[in-house]
Write the structure tokens for this entry.
Amino acid sequence: MAESFAAAVAEQLRQNLGEALLAVTGEDAEWGEFAAQLLSQLVISILYLALFIGAYLLLTGTIRLVIGKQRAQQPFFSQVRSGARYLAGLGALLVILAQFGASPEFLKAMARAGLMVLGFFVAWMIVGRLMKEGVTRYRLDPSIRQLVENLFSVLAGTLALVTVLAQFGFDVLSIIAGLGIVGIAVGFAAQSTLSNFIAGITLLIERPFRIGDWVTINGQDGKVVKIALRTTWLRTRDNIFAMIPNDSVASSDIINYSAEGATRLNIPVGIAYKESAKAAREVLMPVLLGHPEVLQAAGMEPRVLLKSLGDSSMNLEVKVWITPDNLDVQPRIMADILEQMKEALDAAGIEIPFPHLQLFIDDAKGLKSIVEPLYPKLAAK
């Protein structure tokens, strides 16, 4: 039963293939002749493929012998070898298709399309090399190079696809018009995303800050950890990540604490009016000069200045400089300096005042019975 079932399946397959071949060729199928013809075409195709592979190996081997093994390992030779491999593959494909009955018009279109693809690839390599040299020469942000490369890749790929399709008879104008309509629709549907994208490009070009800088954006303090094309990422001192849309970043005030190197800290200190500002300065300066994280470079020496005369104190201002690396621990440094200054002023007996309230009561006869026992001399008057 199994043998009869297998014979029936084989007969049905033979019949279906024969009908399909009859529909294509218009003649009855001669399976022996068809198999022999197919086998001969496969053998010839393999021979042509081996011929092209041999020609490719011979060419690359000759170039390697001429220029030397060491120079043959350079990127340029690798690109030349890729181009030769591509041409060998294209030639083998055309010959094989011709063996299986492809029309001359189709082969010509494929040859033109293949050469155009190679031309676009060479142009992409040249532009990529120029962009790399430009980024290195003008010290541009690597993100800009990556962005330009991506945009150029998309444009070149789209243009190459349209050009290739045009070789096979497709209407290029209709394709371009369709792409334009799709682009307009996408633009209307993603206005916010495109706005942030364009703002991201602006930030990468103008570079108001870089990764690792401490900044204030929209009132948010933090360290820049990532500059994406749509958002900017900040890490606050509490280790909280904030993602700010680039459109908002580009339109807001940006304060960069790391852009110019060292940063100055202004720490207010108040002393009583009975004290001497000079004496307080002499007490505080050793504290500042002995702190390990306060800069002592020329032009950045710590200072203690009398800033203003307040209602109940003389207001001093301590000015110290710290390195950009210490911006991460700026609050700790300020707290440490304040604590040491408080201890130094206490040890020197210099008073740090606080607001006092003095109350004067006139004609308060109801308090006489309470005041007379406390101040008998005043009551006698």
Q: What stands out?
A: The mean pLDDT is 77. Residues 37-185 form one domain. The beta strands are 214-217, 220-227, 231-235, 241-245, 254-256, 263-271, 303-309, 314-322. The chain has three domains: 37-185, 207-256, 263-348.
